Amino acid sequence: MKKSIVLALVMFSSLAFAQKLKVLDGDIKNLKDITTYNLEFDYTDVQIPKFDSEEDFLADKMAKREEKEAGGGEKFKKSWFGDREERYRPKFTESFNKRFDDGEVSVGVNPDAEYTMMVHSTRIYAGYNVGVVRRNAEIDAIITVFETANPDNVLFKGEYTRAQGEGAMGYDFNTGFRISECYAKTAKTFAKYIKKKAMK
């Protein structure tokens, strides 16, 4: 019993630490008066644990699915990239915006916005759920806020590592769903950070 409690505390403290934002550049106070952000995502050079590159990861997963079902490999590849617009962006947008009850701050596809919020995913771990055993998905992401017309003018830049997502009461068998919950968690955490550090 004692070992279980200690293990739970270690896991909790590890998770809390992993979700802490590391400021890389700028000052969160610079975001105080910004009400609207254009939201962009970048997956350049994203790392996949246990693989040398995203291409190697896709080749491995596609081959395994193709063995089970003809066309399964291409289906996985299409889903892997399609989830970025169909799941990750909507989840991040919804999770961020719902933290502001009166809509005083919002993110979305808005190229005319004066400022842009860029979410650069540097690492994606898909996790797994095979029924009796599961593990949360994780992402590392660098969030950069800059002037849309002048990207070199960075107001704030920070990094989240090992942001974990879980949902569906543990019945998260879909890879895209698990990963999308990581983006929801990251958005929630960053929105709260803005409210606490920039707006007060």
TrEMBL record:
Residues 1-18 form the signal peptide. Keywords: Signal. This is DUF4410 domain-containing protein. It comes from Aggregatimonas sangjinii. The lineage of its organism: Bacteria, Pseudomonadati, Bacteroidota, Flavobacteriia, Flavobacteriales.
